[in-house]
Hints:
The protein is an all-beta fold. The protein has one domain: 7 Propeller (Methylamine Dehydrogenase, Chain H), CATH 2.130.10.10. 2% of the residues lie in helices and 37% in strands. It has one helix and 33 strands. Strands 14-15-16-17-21 form a five-stranded mixed sheet, with no helix packed on it. It has a four-stranded antiparallel sheet with strand order 1-33-32-31, with no helix packed on it. The chain has a four-stranded antiparallel sheet with strand order 2-3-4-5, with no helix packed on it. The longest helix is centred in the N-terminal third of the chain and has 9 residues, at 2-10. The two termini are 25 Å apart.
Amino acid sequence: xxxxLLVALAQAAPSDTNGPSFRGARAAGVAEGYDPPVAWDVESxxxxxxxxxxxxxxxxxxxxxxxxxxxxxxxxxAGEAELSSLFGSPGYGAGQSVxxxxxxxxxxxxxxxKTGKTLWSRVxxxxxxxxxxxPKSTHANSTPACDATHVLAFFGSEGxxxxxxxxxxxxxxxxxxxDSGAPDVxxxxxxxxxxxxxxxxxxxxxxVQCDVQKDSFVAALSLADGKELWRxxxxxxxxxxxxxxxxxxxxAAVVLNGYHHVAAYDAATGAELWWLHGGGDVPxxxxxxxxxxxxxxxAHGNARPIRAIRLTARGDLGTASDxxxxxxxxxxxxxxxxxxxxxxxxxxxxxxxxxLACYDAHTGSTNYRERLGDGSTGFSGSPIAAEGKLxxxxxxxxxxxxxxxxxFEVLGVNELGENHLATPALSEGVLFFHTHHHVLAVGExx
Length: 446
């Protein structure tokens, strides 16, 4: 196919075989050089390399380094935590917190990449969660981050924990109560939704975005010992986005999504480089970069934009609807939960209802808007891509494989067999899924 050839030519050299954080390095969601399967079947085992049980409830993605897969979970001590308010259910959209769940075990698991065998497990914290969760959420939403020697597990109010690859605790950090819940409500305790921002490793620093009900901030910690390198206050209410590091002509910037305070910060010092406001009042998607731009979106509230901001931007950008620092802006086109995907010359964005939109990444012009499936399932996980194929997973466990490029073509639909709200990881042509009760690896069987 011509579109696949164009995608291949547009990509850089094959990516690292590791997947160190949410959606891989720089949250790009792209892992070239190895070809994941179009079709698999959990029941028969076709192209399912392994599938292992994992207790608890979590929306964190797996991360991969070398021959190890790391994943977190929160296990309720008494009974099983329930997941509700899924798309199409009677309680869909309900915002009140799940009450009185009792003690949980907050855990990090290390699995063998080839077999799924548990190499070690650690309980980072045990106790009653400081903050309640949304009925669609969990107490382990944040994806771990890792490098060649460290792995970080972030459980919000229950702390940030740094281990080595053998499971030895190197350090931990308590940020106090991090209350991410519905902004601008009178009874915030009834609308606590759970922390979700994931840590990111940049060089010898750990970056964290803590947008909460009060005293929001972004900070860099020493990877070696957890000591704070810098902290910058943010004029922001709760968000659920993860920081993205982007390379500049000199140095790097940390870009954060938000509502009152979308901004870029100098990665070395925390100094603010540019900022803007407005969009959606419950921001979830992570910023992604490509073609000299950083792409930002949110969809709760009125404006609902997708905005392409030039990496050269500086200063106050206002609402970033136009101007020299705005490559393009599409009001009303934003998505709520899913991080967009820049792949080849296109930008892809999938809505909660499974409407996949494909835009020209340079101009914002629309190539298509098409529905995935029959509209009966929601989409919470973010798309990923490899070798000319997009992978988009629905909450009911259906995974759609779509051809990359400006024309819409579904290549396959596969079942995971249970709910799946996390974003899969990619490494060496293998897809790693964290479903409701399992972790599984999907790849071409030799």
